[in-house]
Amino acid sequence: MIRVVLPAHLKTLARVSGEVKVEISGEPRIASVIDAIEARYPMLLGTIRDQVTQERRPFVRYFACEEDYSLEPTDTLLPAAVATGAEPFLIVGAMAGG
Amino acid sequence: MSGVRLLVGTKKGAFVLTSDGQRKHWEVSGPHFAGWEIYHLKGSPADPNRLYASQSSGWFGQIMQRSNDGGKTWETAGNKFAYDGVPGTHKWYDGTQHPWEFKRVWHLEPSLTDPDTVYAGVEDAALFRTTDGGQTWHELPALRAAKGHLWQPGAGGMCLHTIVLDPSNPQRMYTAISAAGVFRSDDAGLTWKPATHGLKSPHELPDPDAEVGHCVHRIAMHRSRPNVLFMQKHWDVMRSDNSGDSWTEVSGNLPSDFGFPIDVHAHEPETIYVVPIKSDSEHYPPEGKLRVYRSKSGGNEWEALTRGLPQSDCYVNVLRDAMAVDSLDACGIYFGTTGGQVYGSSDAGDNWTPIVRDLPAVYSVEVQTLS
Question: B332 and B367 in contact (C-beta within 8 Å)?
Answer without folding.
Answer: yes
